[in-house]
Amino acid sequence: MEGDVKTFASWDKDTLFVPGHGPICGQEGIALSRALFDDIEEQAKKMHKAGVPAAEAADLYEIPGKYKNVGIFSWDFSIGPAITKLYAQWQGK
Length: 93
Hints:
Elements: H1 2-9, H2 27-49, H3 54-60, H4 75-90
């Protein structure tokens, strides 16, 4: 997903994106998605370095206040798989 977001960020500023979920957006929506993914990765990396298992890390992830009002309906069930995937990458799986 991160690779897709980077690709989308390189597209013209007037491009409109129609996600599979969520509202139509422009580059501001892509920037927000990148910031959210970066935050998930940053928190997961800290927990991974501290030896926290992936399943626990997903439960311990805290949505920063600045993102609490972001309308992501799948927020609760997408964090765990994202963190698990990051852990697998860091462990070379």
